[in-house]
Design a protein that fits this description.
binds coenzyme A; alpha+beta; disordered N terminus; 29% helix; 13 strands
């Protein structure tokens, strides 16, 4: 797929209604997609037709939603396809990620062989049992007011583009206040060198482990793994048991970190996010509380 450069405009929420359905969705110009947040009703044919119409009207390439597996046959009959599952997403019950591709181009996977080779090597390698400890002088903490400017700067250094505006301190501040736990690592000279987050959905008891970034000079020290383990501890304390991630399929390191921490691969979301300058396939990995 050709590289696309997109201006960042804020996501918009949209309520869709028909005689047999209701849904709340997010339209993302940046990711050129509709994400359905919630849906209800029995008429899946009309729901899918409306999503398709709306996506095409926007010129988008993809619609996706986390659905109840009981609805899968009706959604498939209406033209959606299952790409992955998320273990325990709905208060311990699984979700299935159902998608519509609105163009053939959005379905193309030019890096498929490379992604499958990475997945195969990550899943077949024995998980590393390296003890997780911070290098001397390094510290980690849940991000607070004194961290958001540095955190936005770190994300701007690591990502050429990202599905959400994490390079803006105000966005980090607001999401931290509502539902996201950001964790950071600083080195001995107080420079922020790595960060990640847990985006919690407390009513449903799940969290997406996401926004991993380590400065290039600091990679391979185990910092992403340390952040993941610390965030898992944060989630345990907050009684959020079901954890998952949507990781870039071409990042061997990122997929390795999740495999090392006991996550299971449950599928691949094709061209799901616009990240670092292009659309990318994302692998889903899940882990339930031990
Ligand atoms: C992905 C990223 C966060 C990893 O950070 P990190 O702090 O270097 O990660 P860690 O040191 O904890 O672990 C990396 C693991 O991947 C392995 N790894 C790293 N690069 C690898 C490669 N090219 N091939 C195979 N394995 C690789 C490491 O050996 C290590 O595994 P091990 O502990 O079993 O030896 C970092 O590379 C990064 O910031 N990338 C750019 C941003 C990004 O893509 N973020 C992910 C968004 S989904």
């Amino acid at each position: 797929m050709a590289s696309v450069s997109l201006a960042t405009s804020p996501d918009r929420t949209l309520e869709l209604k028909g005689s047999g359905f209701r849904a709340m969705a997010v339209l993302s110009d940046h990711n050129q997609r509709i994400q359905v947040l919630r849906y209800e009703g029995a008429d899946m044919v009309s729901l899918v037709a409306e999503l398709r119409r709306c996506g095409l009207e926007q010129g988008f390439g993809k619609v996706f939603m986390k659905a109840d597996p009981l609805h899968r046959p009706a959604l498939e009959a209406a033209g959606m396809e299952a790409e992955a599952s998320i273990t325990g997403f709905f208060s311990g019950e699984d979700a299935v990620v159902m998608s519509i591709f609105l163009s053939e181009q959005r379905r193309e996977r030019p890096h498929r062989d490379q992604e499958e080779a990475i997945l195969e090597s990550v899943r077949s390698r024995k998980p590393s049992s390296k003890p997780a400890s911070l290098p001397e002088g390094y510290t980690t903490n849940v991000a607070g007011e004194r961290d958001f400017e540095d955190l936005a700067e770190l994300y701007a250094q690591v990502f050429a583009s990202y599905p959400y505006p994490i390079t803006e301190a105000e966005y980090l501040r607001q999401t931290a206040a509502s539902h996201v736990v950001y964790r950071v690592i600083r080195d001995g000279s107080s420079q922020m060198v790595a960060a990640a987050s847990a985006e919690t959905n407390r009513p449903l008891g799940n969290a997406e482990m996401t926004d991993f970034a380590t400065l290039p000079s600091q990679r391979g020290l185990g910092l992403a793994r340390l952040l993941l383990e610390a965030l898992q501890g944060d989630m345990k304390r907050q009684q959020v048991p079901n954890l998952y991630t949507i990781a870039r399929a071409r990042s061997a390191g990122m997929n390795r970190v999740f495999a090392n921490c006991g996550y299971e691969w449950t599928g691949t979301l094709v061209n799901n996010c616009h990240i670092s300058g292009d659309f990318e396939d994302m692998h889903v990995w899940c882990r339930q509380a031990q």
